[in-house]
Every structure is written in C-alpha cells, then in structure tokens.
Amino acid sequence: MQQFAVYINPNLDTEPIFKLLAELNDRFGLRFYGTKAQRDILPAKMPCCDHDHGKMPWIECVLVFGGDGTILRAKTIAILTRAPILGINLGWLGFLSETTFKELESFIPYLIHEKHKLISRILLNCKLKREGKVIFEGLALNDAVIYKAETPRMINIRTYSEGRFVFSARCDGAIACTPTGSTAYNLSAGGPLLTPEMRAIVVSHLNPHLLSIRPMVFPSTNKICLKVTGLHEPAWLQLDGENVHQMLVGDEVIVTEADVKVDFVKLSDRTFYRTLRNKLHLGK
Fold first, then answer.
1. Is 68 a catalytic residue?
2. Do residues 225 and 159 lie in contact, with contact meaning Cβ atoms separated by under 8 Å?
3. Which of 13, 26, 40, 68 is catalytic?
4. Which CATH number fits domain 3-116+267-279: 3.30.565.10, 3.30.429.10, 2.60.40.740, 3.40.50.10330?
C-alpha cells in the first residue's frame, strides 16, 4: 500500500495528524488524499480523491482518524474507492478501530508489504416506501432505526420477513442492524451480540410495551419490512445515527443485505472476543 485516503473527525486537533502524515510521506514515500467534504480542514496542498471530473487516483486504504462515528461517516469514501478502512482511534470507545495514533507509524511497514488481513462486513440496503413508491434509499454499516422522534406516545410497528407477518409491537421504535451494528444501539436495546463475519440482520424494538417482544435474528438473505401503522406525529428514519428522512403512517422500511461490502484492515492478532472483554468488559 502506498496511496491512502484520509478521513478525520473535524472536531479533533488536526495539526498532529497532518504532521504525522507529512513524516510518513518523507520516510516511506506515501501519498495521502483528502475528500472534498473536508476541504476546509485539509492542508492547502493536499489533493482530494473524490473529484467531480477526471480520473480518480488509485486508493489502497482509507485512514480514519476519530471514533466509531467517524468510521461510519467514512464508509461512503470506502465504497467509492473500494478500499478497506483502517480506523485510528481518537474517540471514546473505538470499537471499530484497529489501532491508535501512537501505534500507526509502527504498523505502516505491515501495510506497505501487504502483511495484513481484511475482514469484510456486510451493509444494509434500506428503502423507505410510501404508498408503494420508494422515496429514499441508503446504505447502513451499523443500523437502520425507526424512532418516534418528538411524540411522547408509543408508535406501532409491524415486522415482516419475506412478506410473512412476524409480529406487531407498540414501542418507541425499532432497530435493524448488521453484525457490525450489534455492538452499538442494538446492544443498548437488549439485542444479541453477533460476530462481524456473520451474515445476518437483527431486529430489536425500543422499549416495547409487552415483555414478550424480543429481539430476533434473521438470515441476511431475507427481506425485512418494518411498517409503521400507528403514529401521531412524524417519526424519523435514521441510518448509522443520522436522521435521513421523516416517516408517516403507512410508511415501510425495506431492509436487505446490500450488494456491496466494506472491508476493514486487520493488523493485530486481537480477536473480536478480546475486544469485547477489553472494551465492553464482557464477563467482568
């Protein structure tokens, strides 16, 4: 690897980051590219990899400086360049990050000489349908969430799998997540943990009225439909923690496994289970 895209949490102090990148350029001859969306925080001479016109540079890896939220935002550039993500944790939990700022320089030779592994993670393709028509479509690395928004009342969501009715729930909302997202909002809602390499979709409801409503795991080959049938005020559809579209009564969110995946760089021998023990204190 010699050519890298760079995506940074804009709230960070970027001076140490760009100083390190300059040192890596001088020492190893690496090339770094920013993105147009972050032009205002980039050094003046740093080129961008996502041009409006002309040929894009060949990107071999996306370096993401920040926490898990920054990695979720960076998935777009990873999909665009088809390059794997290497997360450098400068946030809080950093569950998706592979390394730290202090460790990065020592890992660069592993990247240059291809001494690393790649872990593929599925994405969800999410379609919002209203009166039979798709009015919004997007991809999620973590989850798609229907949330009741500002209404104090519960909403009603009917769940379908492959066109078959599963159950109806009065609740504050519902989460459809990937195995990657199983350690995020889904976990806080009482959903199960899934290992990253699995191909499955978890549906968990937020604060359901009945204790009999439990999280369910579906094969990723299934088409999951979450239909809002009871709603007093507009709800929100959120993808990876961002509000993307308002929802009305009768709207449906169709969730399927996307045709594309996102790869993550694996440099160390730390297992998923070790990360659970260290960062989520599993079993302690």
1. yes
2. yes
3. 68
4. 3.40.50.10330
